[in-house]
Structure formats: C-alpha cells, structure tokens
Specification:
Number of helices: 18
Helix content: 55-70%
Radius of gyration: 66 Å
Structural class: alpha/beta
Strand order of the largest sheet: 7-8-13-12-9-11-10
Number of strands: 13
CATH class of one domain: Alpha Beta
CATH topology of one domain: Rossmann fold
Length: 638
C-alpha cells in the first residue's frame, strides 16, 4: 500500500504571496541582472558583417565549365571540373589568407582569426559564392569582403591559365604516344596482310566462312535425300513381296442352250393360251392347264440362269503394277548410289573446310586484334589532334566568367551585441532569477508552526492513510435521529477536518462522493451539519447532480456570503465521471464516502481507477462506513 501523499501544487496565488514576502530579494536580483547585462553589453567590442557575392557562371563550378579540363576531349568526360566545395577549399589556405591580410590591412592578425572573420557559403544552384566578412568596424568588414572577392577572381583566373597549360602539355604527350602507337599498329597490320597474301583479309575470312556454311547445307540436303530414298526402297521392296508377277485377264465362256429352249417353249405356250381364250374363259380348265405349264417353264428358266455360261479357255499375262514398282525400285537404288557418292565427296570437302576454319580462327583473331589496335590508336591520335586545336582556342577564350555581382556594403547595424535584444533577455532572466531565488529562500526558511488542526492537504503523520489518501474517520452506516456519543465524536472529528482552513482562505467547499452509490452522501452531510451545529459551527448543505452546474458558482457565492463556516456538497457516485469532473474542479477537491459492503482499500482503489481516466483529481480524504479489521489496524498503527 502506498502511504505517501504528494504535496499540493503551488498555485499562482501562493506564488504571488511568496514573492510579496520576499520582494526585496527578488527586486535586488532583478536589478543586478539587468545592470550586469547592460554593463557587459557596453564592454563587448561590436562586430559588423558585410557580404559580397561572386557569380561562377559556367566558369568554376559544374560540368562543362570554362575551367573544365581539356583532357575531357580525350577521356570522354570532365576530369578537371571544380565544384563549389573545391573552390572553398582553395580559398581556405594560408597563402590566400596571407594575401588577404596584406591587402586588407589586417596587421598581424592570425590565420585562425582571419578564418573566423571570413565565412564562405554557396548560393542556390551552386553558382554563387558568398563571402561573409566580419570586422570590428563597418569599414573593416566591407574591406575584407571586397578584397576577398577580388583575390578570389584573380586566383580563379590564374588557376584556369595554369590548368590550360597543364592540359596542353598532357595533350601533347598524349598525341605523341597516340601517333607512335598508330604507326606501330599500322606496320603490324601490313605485315599480317602480306603474310595472308590478301588485300582484304576481312573479305577472305568472310568468303571462306560462307563457303563452309554452303557445303554444310549441301551435305545436310544430301543426307535428307539419302534417308528419303532408303525409305522409298524399303516400301517398294515390301510391295513387291505381296504383288504377283502374272495376272489372269479372263476366261472364254459359252452360252447355256437350256435357257433358250425353255424360252422358246414358253413363247409357244403363251401363243396357244391366246388361241384358247378365243373359245374358253379365263377360269376354264384348258386355260389353267396352259398357265401351269408356262409357270413351270419360267421357274426352270430362273434355275438355268444361275449358270448362264459354261467354262471356256483361260487368258494369262504380265502384272503391270509389279513391273512399274520394280522399275521404280531399280531407279531408286541407282539414285541412292549416286547420292551416297555425293555425300562422301561433300563430307571430305567439308572436313577440309572445317580444318581450314580452325586454322583461320587464330589468324582472324590476330587480324581483329591488330585492326582494333590500329583503329583505337587512330581514334586516339585524331582526338589528341582535336584537343590540341581546342587548346589553342582555349588559350584565347579560356578565362573563366567569374565576376562580382554584389559588392560588400558598409553595415549600419552591428551583428553583435544587440542592446535591445540583450535588454529584453536580461529582463526575463532577472524575473526568472528573482522569482527562483525567492522560492529557494522560502524553501530553506524556518516554517511556521502547524495550526491546531492540520491542513487536510498536508495531514499529520498521526492521520492514517488508505491508498495514499488521508482517512478522516468512520461514520454510521444508517441514518438515525439518535446518535450515540461515540458516533457524535467521530462525526465531529470528521467535520472539523473538513471545516479546517488557513487564515485568510475562503470558506471551504467539500464535495462528498459515494464510491458505489450516492445514497450516503446526503446522510453524511446532514449528520456532520447536525453535530457541528451543536458546537456553533454554521454548515450549509447542498445536493448537486450536475443538472444545474451553471448556477452552482452563484449558489456557492451566496452561501459563502451568508456567513457559513463550511459548505458540504452531496454529490453523485464516482462512476458518474462526466458529472464528477466539473464538480471536483469547482470545489477544488473531493472526499470519498466508502461503501459499507467492501473494504476501504478496495473502495479507494476503485475510485482512483474511475477518476484518473484522463485527469488527476484532488483527494481531500476518505470516510469509512464501518470498523473493518484493516481499518482498526490502521488506527492502531497511527
């Protein structure tokens, strides 16, 4: 359990009271601080600042500048372009500072002091160099800034001239080396061409390579043709196995004479039938007899027609399909022999060409190496000659475009010290030191004796703590008109704790809040008012629920003006945080009324969890509802 109680925060009213008691000390510290600052400001040597700006337009900064190295023509890039940082490094040298000290009339000023007085910075885009010069007089600051700008322009021009001369020498050396390498590569290439006995080795290598490719293609075509002929021969040989060499064209046949005899008899019978019909009817026996004979003859003809011809002589000849396939097979075998002969010859030619290509590969690589070396040397010689021509032009137009765009002006207002700013700062510092020393003196001074009843925000050690909150006492759990002497003593003790105030303080306003419900706050307020009223203490009671919060300040003012010694506000339960928060701020704190169903420690912990969500309330104390074992232990310990 935390038994420490944080001291109440110092309010503006209390701070004003402390400063009022210690005003001689605060005033003395304030005056001494302001006077010391004013004196030191007068003693400080003034420092003035002047600025001059130099434009580096395509001259000393950025790619492709006028001070760029001419070797870029050879190397394909810029090897000597200076950045703004490089220009600053050139300035921050002892040689530059020495010239500046002589021409600006700085006497025997050290290099470190000169470096401090001359600050360099760059403008936007890196094309402007700014000289920030500081001096003890306006004239000195102006002279340092302008002199530094003039010296830098001269330094840039001298550096450009020296760089051009150095680049020209490098180009001359590069041209000599390139010409020597070109001549050597040309002689080596000529010796190689003579050894090859070819005026154009490139065309020779290309022709031989193309010849090899064509022969390889011919060999592939011949092999494809050989495979096709083999497939054809196999198919034709297979066909000859199943085709007969001879074929029967037909047989000699004789006509069947039985059929003609039957047909003749049928014709005669039909003629008789026609004659009979002249004398007889269709259903007469004579006609029917003839019909039966005609039907029998026709059936005999149908049977005889099954063998309408009789066997004669047989005609046998050569099979033309067999003869044609055999002829094609012979031609295919002849072609296969020719193709195989061509394949052998072509293979020999291809082998010879491939061996030749193997030997030519090394020669071709040697030729390409020599030709590449010659072309590179020729290109280097051409570039070097172009660079020398450019160097000649650069000597005439190589001065960098560096000029002053803004000369340093004579400053009117010193950079330091600034009397007005120092005075304002000294006033604030004096106030801070005066108030701080007053509070320190008040802290170490002898504190006055404690009053008869201690202030509730600074309880005596004899007052027990529950969860870091002073335990003001216990109260009856039920409302009754007849209180026992013991209950009256306890309520009187609680009431005097609540009614206590320092001399000169306003009427205390105490907000009573229930932990679980608000049904005991009004009862406790009434009981405390009744007991204190017996002793002559005037207590006012007021039930608040947050509905009339706007009118509450005026009501409290009226009750205080009525001569009351204590104002008790019977408020809601702590779980109604939205209502409790404005009431607690208005009353300046709260008093917890613990629940009779739970221990005091649990009630305090619950109230802390509910009320410290977003802000920190001020607890004056807690009132227990009954004598619990833990509460008795706390009282015995106190």
């Amino acid at each position: 359990m935390d038994e420490r109680v944080l001291p109440p925060p110092i309010t503006l009213r209390e701070l004003t009271r402390i400063v009022g008691r210690r005003w001689p000390l605060a005033l003395s510290v304030f005056l001494v601080t302001v006077a010391a600052t004013f004196f030191l400001t007068k003693r400080i040597t003034p420092l003035y600042e002047s600025k001059s700006r130099v434009l580096l337009e395509s001259g000393t900064s950025g790619p492709g500048s006028g001070l760029g190295s001419l070797l870029g023509l050879v190397t394909g890039g810029s090897s000597g372009n200076a950045s703004l940082d490089t220009e600053m490094e050139k300035i921050e040298t002892q040689d530059f500072y020495k010239k500046l000290r002589q021409q600006a009339g700085l006497g025997e000023m050290g290099f470190d002091e000169i470096q401090y007085r001359l600050q360099l910075s760059g403008g936007r885009g890196g094309q402007v160099l700014i000289f920030n010069a500081r001096g003890s007089t306006p004239e000195q600051a102006q002279k340092i800034a302008n002199t530094a700008a003039v010296l830098y322009i001269q330094l840039a021009r001298d550096d450009a001239k020296a760089r051009i001369q150095l680049d020209r020498k490098h180009l001359q050396d590069a041209a000599a080396i390139a010409r020597q390498e070109k001549n050597r590569a040309e002689r080596a290439l000529e010796r190689f061409n003579k050894g090859m006995a070819a005026s154009d080795p490139t065309a020779y290598f290309k022709g031989r390579a193309e010849r090899t490719v064509l022969v390889r293609k011919d060999l592939e075509e011949a092999r494809k043709q050989e495979a096709g002929l083999q497939t054809q021969i196999q198919a034709q040989e297979k066909q000859l196995k199943y085709l007969p060499k001879d074929v029967v064209y037909g047989y000699g046949l004789n006509k069947n004479p039985v059929i003609d005899g039957y047909r003749t008899e049928i014709f005669a019978l039909k003629a008789q039938r026609k004659v009979k019909l002249l004398d007889y009817q269709e259903d007469s026996p004579e006609v029917q007899t003839l019909d039966e004979e005609i039907a029998a003859k026709e059936k005999a003809v149908q049977e005889a027609q099954k063998t309408a011809f009789s066997a004669g002589s047989k005609n046998v000849g050569r099979n033309p399909d067999f003869t044609n396939i055999q002829s094609e097979l012979l031609r295919a075998k002849t072609s296969l022999t020719t193709v195989r002969t061509t394949i052998n010859e072509t293979q020999k030619l291809l082998d010879a060409l491939e061996r030749e290509q193997t030997g030519l590969a090394d020669k071709q690589f040697q030729y390409l190496t020599l030709r590449t070396a010659f072309e590179a040397a020729a290109e280097a010689d051409k570039t070097a000659q172009t660079g020398l021509i450019a160097a000649t032009l650069k000597e005439a137009t190589g001065q960098p475009n560096v000029r002053v765009i803004d000369w340093g002006r004579k400053p009117d207002i010193p950079l330091s010290p600034k009397p007005l700013l120092n005075t304002i700062l000294s006033v604030f510092l004096g106030l801070f030191l005066g108030i701080g020393l007053s509070l320190l003196a008040e802290y170490f001074s002898n504190k006055p004796a404690a009053p008869e009843l201690p202030y509730f925000d600074e309880p005596l050690p004899a007052l027990p703590l529950v969860g870091g909150i002073p335990l003001l006492g216990t109260a009856p759990t039920a409302q009754t008109e007849h209180l026992t002497a013991r209950d009256e003593d306890r309520l009187r003790e609680i009431g005097y704790w609540l009614a206590h105030r320092e001399p000169g303080e306003p009427v205390p306003v105490r907000l009573l809040l229930g932990v679980r419900s608000d049904n005991r706050t009004a009862t406790l307020a009434a009981q405390v008012a009744k007991v204190l009223g017996q002793d002559g203490v005037k207590v006012a009671q007021l039930e608040v629920d947050g509905a009339s919060l706007a009118e509450l300040p005026q009501q409290l003012a009226n009750l205080a003006a009525a001569g009351n010694d204590l104002i008790l506000l019977a408020g809601p339960a702590v779980w109604n945080v939205r209502t409790v928060s404005p009431l607690e701020r208005l009353a300046g704190g709260l008093v917890l009324v613990a629940s009779p169903d739970t221990p005091v420690e649990e009630s305090v912990a619950r109230a802390r969890r509910l009320l410290t969500n977003g802000y920190t309330p001020r607890f004056h104390g807690v009132v227990a509802a009954e004598e619990l074992p833990a509460l008795a232990a706390l009282e015995e310990k106190a």
